[in-house]
Amino acid sequence: MNMLFKQTFAASVLATMVVTAAQAAPAEAPPAFVKRVADGLISRLKADQGKLQNPATIKAIVRQNLDPYVDGQAFTRIVMGTYANASTPAQRAQFEQNFRNTLIENYGSAFAKYSSQTYSMRPYKATNSKFPVVTIDFNNKGEKIPVSFQLSDVGNQWKVRNLNVSGIDLGLQFRNQFAANVQRNGGNIDKAIATFKPDADAAVNKK
């Protein structure tokens, strides 16, 4: 095997590996991913239902059963909006950390009220979008609350990059809240990041 052939062969193998990696996608179908996460969360809430008034317990549930499945970097860019491009990597990392911690408190308060709610999945409509959307209806005391999960492929694993609750785009509402906070802080991004508290209730109830 001469040197030219070796080089050509190696280049061909490398090119094949690059193309294969670029075309790789999560093996799990989007609806299966959402169902797995939802079932795991509900099972945990049922198992620990007697402890849901304990803040430490509810925070642990959210951190272990929901937080790992969130695409924090994508959510950060969505919420920061135009300020994401004007910020430094360190500022975005700080924003993501603060944002996650605040959402854990928000979701913790909601999950603490869990009382055996059920859900049903809507038929999944596959599209060519790189961000597939899966919608489920939560049954809350007879009221159906539609929640759409917009997903992103992170290292061949699906993660949630945005949520739509009852027709309300949470990422957009949180972006508006953050922009208002930047204005309140005179355009100071560091202060805006440090003081930003996303209000999930206000976002969902936005009409």
Automatic annotation (TrEMBL):
Q: Which regions span the lipid bilayer?
A: none
Pfam family, any one = MlaC
Signal peptide boundaries? 1-24
Which keywords has UniProt assigned to this entry? Signal
Q: List the protein's name.
A: ABC transporter substrate-binding protein
Natural source organism: Acinetobacter rongchengensis
